[in-house]
């Protein structure tokens, strides 16, 4: 068993609050009726085929409260605990922090440490796409699109317990994570600091590409660093460049 790489996408419910104004700068909460919570998440292990979704109605607790994400957070906590690396689009700024805040509020401890890969960060560090949204990157790279959704109506339907909306949300989440994985594979060789997947192997006879573990690599030139020169390699599968022994 090599690296446990988890692709993850979460969907949250909006805050329910009162306001004296509907206009942007003045609109602020007079009081909060209900805080945000996680509606659903979709995930896929890199070593498995299937994208899975976990939604609030999957839990018995949903019958008592449509807004209680404790059991859902329990499943998330377990997955994070298992993962060596979690990949999400804008995951470093949003998904992982949002999950963390729901974990601590629901009384869970810190999951065991994992590394993260944020496809939004890769997109912004190496490219100047017109838009760095997952949907648009998917389109630019011909890897597919997100499923169009009815936006606020869909979220409202789920918050209000409409089962049809939940089915749509599930399909939407599934497609998001499938698209995330495809976009990740297209972008990974451009990542400025991709984790070295070789280090997660139990043993190895030949070191493969640090980004994808392929042993289909080629020595191509010399990399000159601060103090020394190194043999430089390129992966023939994913296109990553990496360095080997000192020259
Ligand atoms: Zn590779």
What does this structure look like?
- GO terms for molecular function: nucleic acid binding.
- Residues 36-187 form the YprB ribonuclease H-like domain.
- This is YprB ribonuclease H-like domain-containing protein.
- With 247 residues, the chain is an alpha+beta fold.
- It folds into 2 domains: 5-190, Nucleotidyltransferase, domain 5, CATH 3.30.420; 215-247, no CATH class.
- The chain has 6 helices and 10 strands; from the N terminus they run βββββαβαβααααβββ.
- It has helices spanning 70-82, 91-105, 119-126, 134-140, 152-159, 163-187, and strands at residues 5-13, 16-19, 29-34, 37-45, 52-55, 85-88, 115-118, 217-224, 229-235, 241-246.
- It is elongated.
- It binds zinc ion (ZN).
- Zinc ion binds at residues 209, 211-212, 214, 235, 237-238, 240.
């Amino acid at each position: 068993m090599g690296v446990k790489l988890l692709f993850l996408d979460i969907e949250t419910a909006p805050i329910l609050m009162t306001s004296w104004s509907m206009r942007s700068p003045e609109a602020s909460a007079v009081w909060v009726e209900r805080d945000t919570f996680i509606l659903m998440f979709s995930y896929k292990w890199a070593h498995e085929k299937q994208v899975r979704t976990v939604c609030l109605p999957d839990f018995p607790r949903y019958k008592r409260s449509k807004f209680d994400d404790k059991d859902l957070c329990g499943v998330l906590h377990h997955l994070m605990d298992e993962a060596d690396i979690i990949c999400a689009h804008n995951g470093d700024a949003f998904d992982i922090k949002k999950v963390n805040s729901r974990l601590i509020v629901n009384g869970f401890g810190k999951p065991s440490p994992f590394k993260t890969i944020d496809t939004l960060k890769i997109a912004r560090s190496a490219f100047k796409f017109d838009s760095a949204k997952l949907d648009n990157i998917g389109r630019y790279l011909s890897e597919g699109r997100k499923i169009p959704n009815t936006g606020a109506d869909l979220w409202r339907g789920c918050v209000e317990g409409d089962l049809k909306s939940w089915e749509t949300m599930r399909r939407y989440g599934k497609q998001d994570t499938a698209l995330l994985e495809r976009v990740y594979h297209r972008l990974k060789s451009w990542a400025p600091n991709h984790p070295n997947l070789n280090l997660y192997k139990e043993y190895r006879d030949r070191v493969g590409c640090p980004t994808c573990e392929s042993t289909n690599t080629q020595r191509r030139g010399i990399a000159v660093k601060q103090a020394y020169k190194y043999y430089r390699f390129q992966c023939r599968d994913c296109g990553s460049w990496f360095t080997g022994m000192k020259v």
